[in-house]
Structure formats: C-alpha cells, structure tokens
Amino acid sequence: MVAPVTNRGDATGLVELFLPDRPDDDGMRQIAATAHALAYIVIANRSFTDVYQWGCRTRPLNLAAEVQHRLLPASPVCEAAQFMVAGALEPATHVGGDTFDYVVDRDTMQLSVTDAMGHDVEAALLATLAVGALRRVRRAGAELEEQAVEANQAIVDNGRRGFVTGQLLRVSLLDGTTEFVSREPADDDGHDHLRRRSMERKIRRRGGIRR
Q: In terms of CB atoms within 10 Å, which end of the chain has fewer, N or C?
C-alpha cells in the first residue's frame, strides 16, 4: 500500500509498504501516523542535505531556476483552518524572474507574487533583490504599501536594470478582511510618480470591494 507523507498540506512524498495482509482500521491509523511523523523528519532535515532535492528532480535546473528556487518559502504549501495556500514554478527547470512568498503571523497571512523582467539569470538576480527587500521591510512590521515602495526603492538604488511587477496580499485570520496592493513600475529609470500612480489598494469585505 501507499501512504502520503504530508504535513499541513505540504506533500513531501509517498511511502510504499509491502504487507503480508490487508491492515485493519487500527493498522491504517498507525500507518497514517507513521507517514505523518516521517513528514516532520523530512521537513526538519531537508535544509541540511541534497538527498531530498535528488529525489525531487528528474532533470537538472538551469542557473536562473536554481537561483529562483532558493527564493521560495520553506514549504510551497500551507494548510490551516482559515486558508490553504499553494504555489509552484512552471516549468520548474527553466524559470527566471517569477517567484512567490508567504508568511503566517499570529493574526494574518501575507502573500506576495512578483515577476522580474526577463527569463534569465539577470531576471533571477533582480527577483532576489525584490524578494529580499520585501522580506526585510515586512519583517520590520511595515504595511503593504510601504513594502511595495521600499522594494521599488531598493531596485532603483542598487542599479539593477529592468523592473519588477508584483502583487501583495494580507488576509486577516480573524475576520477575513483582505488588503491588496498591485505594483507596476513604468520603466527602469526610477520614474517614481508613474510607479505611485499605478499602485492600487483594495479592501475586500463581505459587502464587496471598497477602493
């Protein structure tokens, strides 16, 4: 039989068992609990070894994809009572510029989806700068609009050519209130007034969207 190795929606793999007889209900529960425990072992140790990556990859990644995959959250999936978030990069072996990130805090879930111009190593480096800037200011407790402004300024100040578009989302786990920011830079010359004009903030409530 085959049992899923999962933790909070993160499907880390499958465990295959060869048993002499069909297990009863108690045996099935023990197998499920063992597979769940194995997920914790994999998650706890995959940061320290390449063995897990060897098992996941059927083809080598190009350089841009290798950089991009290092920008992803520790788990591509998170399942909770109030939400489920999941993401993936496609095609997995040849990506550049596209990435996503999320974090679950005490009362909120924050999500970002960004797209750096291009599909090469330069795009991956630009995405690295954008994601790093977003994480830095997010971890300082900034609001979504400030996160977008600071990430934009980091790209301008550090001399990377090109631009990054992105969407930032914050969902309250208490009442479902949602904040959304869309950031679309005009060009790579730092025309901040165009960037600010393209920003939107929408609050979604039970009654609809309030601008």
A: C
- Please calculate the CA angle 69-74-77 and round it to the nearest 5 degrees: 95
Whether the pLDDT of residue 138 is over 60: the answer is: yes
pLDDT tens readout for residues 22-35:
999 999 999 999 99
The pLDDT of residue 160: 63
**pTM listed for this prediction:** 0.73
Pick one of 3.40.50.720, 3.40.50.300, 3.60.40.10, 3.40.250.10 as the CATH number of 63-210.
3.60.40.10
